[in-house]
Amino acid sequence: MVLQLIIAGLAMGIVYGLVAMGFVLIFRAVGVVNFAQGEFLMIGGFFSYTLTAQLGLPMGAALGVCALIMGLFGIFFHFLTYWPLRKSWDITVIISTIGASIALKEIATLLWGPAPLGVDPIVPGLAKFSTVSIEWQFILTIGIAALLMGGVFMLLERTYLGHILQATAQDQYAAALIGIPVVVATGLTFAISALITGVGGLLLAPIFFVTTTMGGITGLKAFAAVIIGGFGSVHGAIIGGILIGFVDTFSGAYISSTYRDAIVFLCLILALIVRPQGIFGEKIAEKV
Amino acid sequence: MKKWLAVLVIFMFIVPLLAGCSSQKAGDDKAAPIKIGVVTSMTGERALTGQYTKNGVLMAIEDINAQGGINGRKLEAVFEDDNGNDAGAVNAYNKLSGSGVSVILGPIYSNMDLAISPSIKKAEIPTLVMGSSNDLAKQKNQWMFQARTADAISATALAKYAANNLKLKKIAILHETDNFASGAAAVAKKTLEDMGNPPVLVESYNGGDKDFTPVLAKIKASGADGVLAWSQQVEAGLIMKQIKSLDLNIALIGSNSYITKIAIDLAKENAENVYSVADYVATTPLAKGADFAKRYKEKYKIDSEFNSAMNYDATTLAAEALKKAGSTDKNAVRQAMAAIKDFVGVSTTFTFDENNVGGTSVWIVQTKNGVPQVIEAVKGR
What we know:
The complex is a heterodimer.
Chain A: H1 2-30, H2 37-54, H3 59-82, H4 90-112, E1 126-129, E2 132-135, H5 136-158, H6 160-170, H7 172-177, H8 182-208, H9 214-229, H10 234-254, H11 260-274
Antiparallel strand pairs in A: 1-2
Helix pairs in contact in A: 1-5, 1-8, 1-9, 1-10, 2-3, 2-4, 2-8, 2-9, 3-8, 5-6, 5-8, 6-8, 9-10, 9-11, 10-11
Chain B: H1 2-28, E1 34-40, H2 47-66, E2 75-81, H3 86-97, E3 103-105, H4 110-123, E4 127-129, H5 135-138, E5 144-146, H6 151-165, E6 171-176, H7 179-194, E7 201-205, H8 213-222, E8 226-230, H9 233-245, E9 251-254, H10 261-267, E10 275-278, H11 287-300, H12 306-325, H13 330-338, E11 343-344, E12 349-350, E13 361-368, E14 371-379
Parallel strand pairs in B: 1-2, 1-3, 3-4, 4-5, 6-7, 6-8, 8-9, 9-10
Antiparallel strand pairs in B: 10-13, 11-12, 13-14
């Protein structure tokens, strides 16, 4: 039972981590929390349904196409909700993302209908280790999500493009002064954020079905992961996500399946009391 | 230009006035259609329920009007969206109650029905709700009628079937935390205890949960040989699928949600052999139900299911009361409704008791090749 829970917890945790990473990337680039992050997950899930069940693509190809579409979707989202409002208050952008979150849910209902949809897994069937049995999809989710996380991490830390993105995230004005095209940098950040979250949705779709509301609670838990990991820290988001995944799964099995959500958010409050800056956050006071 | 604008403005004021006059007349007109309001989910995650509801109501209205309507008057439906939540249901109900409808049909979800109960009392409009919770009868609301078989009957039937027919010895109970599921699970627990076969484990989860691995792993560890489960439709699909992916080969006996089209479509082959207690299935042995199933399929090109059948029955019950009352007077309709006895619907036979509970029986069914098949009928009263 413990091994079972570890795998399930890790799979959930790593998806929370992906979404949390998406949150952090956008937050670092433009300084606001994107409240439609959970909906990126949902859109990714619906795209995976369209690509596999409706267009008949094999799951491997669907993964690539879905990643590409989600990247483009991120750029589109950037130009619709952030770019026109970039010079106004942060709160304006935040409200614009809340609006986008509601709009995306309703658009999804119009396009794909109100019924929850089932998606075939990448590798069907169950993996069995002695008494433990788990869907291959869980294991694959862990693998693909880890690769994706590693990829984004390398991109940010090791490449020239990554440095451009980092520089823009640190100070847009200074970046613009040294000749970095800010619009390209922020647009690309939105693209990466949407891509990783959308692929998270594609990975979850065969396990939990696709519904228009699937982004809500997942987005919220990922947000908790961001806070626990330290706001603005990419590796903090990953660690926070995995922690939330484990707390979620183990509290459901050993404490109470009714109050597992409450326990997750209770942990969030505890973390805020004990270490408000998060695990990897730095204590910095904003300059006045 | 200004002149035109002035004319336009005046025109805009006059037209609604005229319309107002004509509709006023229509209200008194004995030949105008009788309107029934329907509160259902047309948006939100329960929007599919709304589609099926609409199918059922519109088909019933077509049938009633084809047979000459209600004492010569046509029947007409007004739909109002509840967004799939309790607050939305109350808003939708209040909006409908002020729009001149004679009877209202409430949602299929017990929580929403309990939420609109005070509004029903206030509006004094005979309202047929389709939730199955036992708590609906406890509202002592003379204007609210439960056009459904209550969980007291279905949960007892389910528990008895699991213990007596399937000979299960170590039964686990799994239920959602909403009113319907908690209430039914409590009834089943009591039934099992009274039979000297208490459940080995009672677990609950929240609506909207996706990952049931923790709670199912717990059931697996408990050594249970069967699970009795009360869920809503999407969660039922998830539970059927996840039980199989944990390689948990024990009997699953679920609430009505487990054999709905929504749940079976999601769970696919994992829905095989799942037992359930059902109000209606397309393979029903009832002649009237079978006829409904056939005509529904011809009309909508999809199989009929529970939501549409319950709403078909509720609409025909409303029509019956309106016919018997001979007018749209609220009190007359309420009394006529309360007096309905042995009314054969497509799902079950309806007799309203002193608490306005109508449904009298349920079916024990099992899914075979993706289609729920009736095993036996359980008469409750």
